[in-house]
Design brief:
The chain is of the alpha/beta class. The chain has 7 helices and 7 strands. It is globular and about 50 Å long. The chain starts with 12 loop residues before the first strand and ends in a 7-residue tail after the last strand.
């Protein structure tokens, strides 16, 4: 059961985007272990099926969050099936990009659409249901947005904007009983690096750079970020809003 079981016996309904792999998969499973019903959203059916394997309360939903009408369809899928929505986790993101001199609209556009526009529209669609349940929005950003980043600037810029939205929405939605928080992972073992277009040498160099800036001396695991997401979304965190929680092995403060 989740940490708020003592406050309510009603299982919470959670939507997690980008739930097929990495942090999203770990988060969907963490909520399910706590007793929640999870709508796991992603573009590819196979990873979603793998994420749901062994978890009767995880329901895969194949959807592209950037598609026209997708936000409304995702929220309706949760509310129509389960009658409520308690937590929205805006986790889906893409990390491709590059340094100045390599950027075109074909690169910048998808980054903005996936990492920024889609969370705005999905949250907007979810607010009425979240207001009814006095629910929570959890945005997944990155600590890269609060430091310099040697690989590409647009990706962390989109995540910094998501943190700004977190603070603004926290103030805007507080009168409606909706909390908004963000979790900012640092270097985590996820497949996102596979899609950044880096050569093996560049990936090794990047990993060495990351490790040199992490006081705990290791790369994080998706399950460690999932713990933070479920914690800030728990009913026991009812006085927490507008906060950005780094999960980065101390990199941000080093």
């Amino acid at each position: 059961m989740d940490t708020g079981t003592q406050h309510s016996s009603t299982p919470r309904v959670v939507v997690v985007t980008g739930a097929g792999t990495g942090i999203g998969r770990a988060t969907a499973r963490a909520f399910a272990r706590e007793g929640a019903t999870v709508l796991a959203v992603g573009r590819r059916p196979e990873p979603l099926a793998e994420a749901a394997e062994g978890f009767a309360t995880i329901r895969p939903l194949v959807a592209d969050i950037t598609a026209e009408g997708a936000p409304e369809e995702i929220v309706a899928a949760a509310v129509d099936a389960y009658g409520r929505l308690d937590v929205l986790v805006n986790n889906a993101g893409i990390g491709n990009g590059g340094p100045l001199g390599t950027l075109g609209r074909e690169v910048i556009g998808p980054l903005l659409e996936t990492n920024l526009v889609a969370p705005v529209l999905l949250t907007q669609a979810a607010v009425p249901a979240l207001e009814a349940s006095r629910g929570v929005v959890v945005n997944v950003s990155t600590t890269i947005g609060q430091r310099g980043w040697p690989v590409g600037s647009v990706y962390p810029a989109t995540k910094s904007a998501l943190e700004t939205l977190t603070r603004c929405w926290a103030v805007e939605l507080a009168p409606r009983g909706v909390r908004v928080v963000a979790v900012a992972p640092g270097a985590i073992e996820t497949p996102i690096a596979d899609h950044m277009g880096l050569t093996p040498e560049q990936r090794t160099s990047l990993r060495d750079w990351q490790l040199a800036h992490i006081p705990l001396g290791r790369i994080g695991r998706p399950e460690e970020v999932a713990w933070a997401i479920t914690s800030v979304a728990s009913r026991d965190a009812a006085y927490l809003t507008g906060t950005v929680l780094p999960v980065d092995g101390g990199a941000l403060v080093s």
